[in-house]
Amino acid sequence: MAATEHQHEQALKKFLDERPELRAELDTLNPLLAQAKGETTAQYRDERLHEAFEAEAERLGLFAWELTLQLTAATPEDYQAQRMEVHKEVAEMAGMDWLEYCELYGLGQ
């Protein structure tokens, strides 16, 4: 089961709450930059937040959905179970053998 939109929004909130410097940066974005992109200030801010979130996931060697699960799971065990469930879904959708998929992505089954 992939992370839901609600989970992702919770993860973004927690991510931002843990990074006051990022919050300050996002709160002081130049509105002219948003206007130049044809976006509202809120849309431009949200886009920058998502970029920072994805960059952090990449820095940690995770997919963004994995970081979402990590930030919203009740326990590390819950995170691991949800993470493996999503990976299994992806492997099935890709028509890949589970063991081959695990080897490709360095997952311990």
What's the gist of this structure?
The protein is an all-alpha fold and 109 residues long. The protein has helices spanning 5-17, 20-27, 31-36, 41-59, 64-72, 76-94, 98-105. This is DNA repair protein.
What does this structure look like?
InterPro entries: DUF6388. It comes from Pseudomonas silesiensis. This is DNA repair protein. The protein has helices spanning 5-17, 20-27, 31-36, 41-59, 64-72, 76-94, 98-105. The chain has 109 residues and is an all-alpha fold. It folds into 2 domains: 1-72, no CATH class; 75-109. Helices cover 75% and strands 0% of the residues. The mean pLDDT is 94. The protein is elongated and about 50 Å long. Helix 1 packs across helix 5. The longest helix has 19 residues, at 41-59. The protein starts with a helix and ends with a helix.
Number of strands: 0
Seen as an oligomer or otherwise, the chain set is: single chain
> Ends: how far apart?
17 Å
Q: What share of residues is helical?
A: over 70%
Along the chain, the helix and strand elements come as HHHHHHH
Output the number of helix runs.
Answer: 7
Tally of distinct domains: 2
User: How large is the radius of gyration?
Assistant: 17 Å
Give the class from helix and strand content and strand pairing: mainly alpha
The largest sheet is: none
Protein name: DNA repair protein
